[in-house]
User: What shape does this take?
Amino acid sequence: MPVEGKYCSTAGNIKGVSKITRRSHSDEISSRWLGFDNQFGRTFLGLTLMPGEVAHAYLGGNRVSYLRPLRYYFIISFIGNKLFYYSSC
Assistant: This one.
């Protein structure tokens, strides 16, 4: 079935396949695996300024807005270790 226009008439997907570049790879890592699509910033600021409200919202079911706790812990641990390492050199 030929694709006419910008979208596939059957599935609704955008037609065409883009090449995998370093930029697209880094965007995929930052958004999918690290959660940098504003989840990290919202979680970091929320836990820094109002940790009780973030915990209450997360346990109340608002899990889309925040990073998963274990993922947040690993990201903060990695950043902290890098800062400690480079500040002691």
Notes: DSSP finds four helices and no strands in the chain.
